[in-house]
Amino acid sequence: MDNIEELNAEQRIIEAAADVFEESGFDGARMQQIADKAGINKALLHYYFRSKDLLFEKVFLIVAERIFSGFIKAFEEDGTIFQKIELFLTKHQELLYKNRRFPIFFFNEISRNPTLMKKLVAKLEFNNRFKNLILQLENEKEAGIIRQDVDVKHLMINIVSLSVFPYIGRPVIKEIMSDFGYNYEKFLEERKTVVANFVINSIKA
Amino acid sequence: MDNIEELNAEQRIIEAAADVFEESGFDGARMQQIADKAGINKALLHYYFRSKDLLFEKVFLIVAERIFSGFIKAFEEDGTIFQKIELFLTKHQELLYKNRRFPIFFFNEISRNPTLMKKLVAKLEFNNRFKNLILQLENEKEAGIIRQDVDVKHLMINIVSLSVFPYIGRPVIKEIMSDFGYNYEKFLEERKTVVANFVINSIKA
DNA sequence: GTCTATATTGGGATAGAC
DNA sequence: GTCTATCCCAATATAGAC
């Protein structure tokens, strides 16, 4: 959110809190820092959200829903499985590029408090939104377009793994790359085509 | 470490701290909890390690080195690239299975403090230990065993992504799987063969 | 709704006896 | 080396004026 000063206090707090939590995690975040960034005062945080825990949960679910719905949509467009995979990867990379700290933040907070994921799943209705994709995949298997031994669950997790891991492991990979004399940013750029090819090579019949 | 009471105080602190940091992260960890688990008293932590920061850094590097060297070795055995990939994946899965909380802990702490990775890279000598693998891969490309367009960097990251992501995203995937009526533990078990096949299908000429 | 001032506790760190 | 007791600051949270 760019023009934070145009929002009302409650919205400003949410945007500021999103930034600070994403940067430092729940345990590392400071209410003072959130207040400063929102341009208000600590007491007002408690006036609107009662406690750090409640503020966190609300903000976490808002941000996570915003990002997840962004790329779930890719699978809901028309097209072959191959096209959908490419579209998803493009969309995914775009979102990750703009929200580099989100993945590690997200997975770490869910590990700390798995019930957050229950709430998110309920909000997002994954099950409903992926039904058609699963059917389509079975059809394309029957039609001999993709390999018989491809499993939907594993395929989905493989795609997400390949796409998101370089962001979760950003500073780790960056350091190793530089040890080998490679450039991390260039590597990320290359991945946009490499990953799609890797997946498609692996599943096409 | 199972028999913590047989160790001397310093070693007991390290093992206890490893557990507590891995469980709660640096920010969430409490010196009191580490002292309790080590069966000693808070003051002694400071006697041996001066501060929480110093204790953390020492413990982090010990644990990370222990785990990383475990699976780097897989690439140093004899065999074809395909065999090495399978061996690495087996070894990797074994280690992750025994250290489920390690991946998210590791990547989160490195994000918080990337200079830790510099120190780890220096200790582990990645560059040296991977030189032969890179040569071998180029040779097998020349020999027409693997596809011409395979890139070493991306291949390595792909393998690690596919292997480690299900552990980083453990509670996330678990929740989504259960929403679809699948079982996460069964899914992990299947992955031992699925991932190797996925990679090999994708790179073989 | 928004502020200043303050209460309260938690937790890292140190002093000092043994 | 190991302990008890204590210091002290940081950080969440609340009271109460405006």
- Estimate the global geometry of chain A from the Cα principal axes: globular
**How many H/I helices of chain A?**
11
The CATH first-level class of the largest domain in chain A comes to: Mainly Alpha
Oligomer status: homodimer
Q: Give the distance, in angstroms, between the N- and C-terminal Cα atoms of chain A.
A: 45 Å
CATH superfamily heading of the largest domain in chain A:
Tetracycline Repressor, domain 2
Topology, number of strands of chain A: 0
Average of pLDDT of chain A: 94
The CATH architecture category of the largest domain in chain A equals Orthogonal Bundle
Pick out the low-confidence regions of chain A.
none
Radius of gyration over C-alpha positions of chain A, nearest whole angstrom:
20 Å
Strand content of chain A: under 5%
| H-E string of chain A | HHHHHHHHHHH
Mind describing the biggest β-sheet of chain A?
Answer: none
**Classification by helices and strands of chain A:** mainly alpha
The residue fraction in helices of chain A comes out at: over 70%
Give the number of domains of chain A.
Answer: 2
Q: State the CATH topology of the largest domain in chain A.
A: Tetracycline Repressor, domain 2
Give the largest interface pair and sizes.
A-B, 56 and 56 residues
